[in-house]
Write a structure and sequence with these properties.
alpha+beta; 27% strand; four-stranded mixed sheet; single chain
Length: 389
């Protein structure tokens, strides 16, 4: 991923007015272009593939897209809306007048988090939810069709087992910060042309925690958390498609002060299949047939994700004809049935015909009222021209 994030619409080459279908088409085109299987050992393509997946994961979700359109990258941050709820985390008051109360009276409390004087900020010592983690997983096409179980390795922050997450050495406890008295905030009063202005910000001594650890735990260095490598089992539902995300609740970083753990968000990539092309829940397949099969009709064995099925090809079927196998497409990932499979007839032209085969085709052409000889269209179509002596 580049150091400087690009606008998600720019990543997909779209405008902000792009429809859901345009977003989906742009993603599929770019995901195929930069897929690791199509660009082996190409770190640049791999980074672009991840960038495309991240952009699609946001823009394909109506709620996330709305937040991104309004707030940019901050709107889709896992911690969006947490903490102070306002930019910068500062509150203001003038003397005994609290600007949070003024704005709240006009806007129904909508500015309480951003301008709130004492009491409206979240408790820094209260339970805090852990950060969510993101991981990528590549699976085969048939695994996506049938569903499967996978195991993924990751490093995550967990509560230190030695100090119980307090950060203090065993046998000791964190002490209340004397500067902020456990609030995690300090007030600084300044004089301005508007009068006495008090700014409220994070306590520099305890860094907003409200507590000070004088004897840090040696295992975690006083952080209260340690990094552990874990293997997480994941169930991949049948019908999953590239770019879709599977949330694993509670498998992210652990929370602090007794808060819940974050989630693990697994972004799935599906390797392309040599036979099937997928569009939504529908599958597309090209079926080779011979000239005689197309002309006379035949009983074909058609590949599907369930195995081969019989299909009776009508006599006189033309090249490019398409037929549908109902209910033989991809399973819907939400369990709403299955799509269809569309089969396109591709005529296979025989090569290296024997003399007898050539003569048989020439005789057939004559019965159709076509001229034989070296300019015979049937002969030219099915075999090489015979050199003139």
């Amino acid at each position: 991923m580049p150091d400087q994030k690009r606008d998600y619409y720019e990543v997909l080459g779209l405008s902000k007015s792009a429809s859901d279908e345009e977003i989906k088409k742009a993603y599929r085109k770019l995901a195929k272009k930069f897929h690791p299987d199509m660009n082996p050992d190409d770190k640049s393509a791999e980074a672009k593939f991840k960038e495309v997946n991240e952009a699609y994961e946001v823009l394909s979700d109506h709620d996330k897209k709305a937040r991104y359109d309004q707030f940019g990258f901050a709107g889709v941050d896992p911690n969006f809306g947490a903490g102070t709820g306002g930019p910068g985390g500062f509150g203001f008051d003038m003397g005994d007048i609290d600007l949070g109360d003024i704005f709240g009276s006009f806007f129904g409390g909508g500015f309480g988090g951003g301008f709130g004087g004492g009491g409206r900020r979240s408790n820094p010592n209260g339970p805090q939810r852990g950060a969510s983690l993101r991981a990528g997983l590549t699976i085969d096409f048939m695994e996506a069709m049938t569903g499967c179980d996978k195991e993924i390795g990751l490093n995550r922050a967990e509560s230190c087992p030695d100090c119980g997450g307090t950060g203090a050495a065993p046998g000791t406890s964190p002490e209340t910060c004397p500067d902020c008295r456990g609030t995690g905030q300090v007030r600084v009063q300044r004089q301005s042309i508007m009068g006495s202005v008090t700014t409220v910000g994070e306590c520099p001594r305890c860094r907003g925690r409200g507590k000070i650890v004088k004897s840090p735990c040696k295992s975690c260095g006083g952080n209260g958390q340690v990094t552990r490598h874990r293997k997480i089992k994941i169930h991949i539902p049948a019908g999953i498609d590239s770019g879709q995300t599977i949330p694993i609740r509670g498998e992210g970083n652990s929370g602090t002060n007794g808060g819940p753990s974050g989630d693990l968000l697994v972004v799935v990539s599906v390797r392309p299949d040599a036979r099937f092309l997928r569009d939504g829940d529908d599958l597309y397949l090209e079926q080779p047939v011979s000239f005689t099969q197309a002309a006379l009709g035949a009983e074909l064995q058609i590949d599907t994700i369930d195995g081969k099925v019989k299909y009776t090809l009508p006599a006189g079927t033309q090249p490019g004809a398409r037929f549908r196998l109902r209910g033989k497409g991809a399973p819907n990932v939400n369990g709403r049935g299955r799509g269809d499979q569309y089969v396109t007839v591709r005529l296979e032209v025989p090569r290296n015909l024997t003399f007898q085969q050539r003569e048989a085709l020439r005789a057939f052409a004559e019965t159709m009222g076509e001229e034989g000889g070296d300019s015979d269209p049937v002969r030219d179509f099915f075999g090489k021209k015979k050199k003139k002596k």
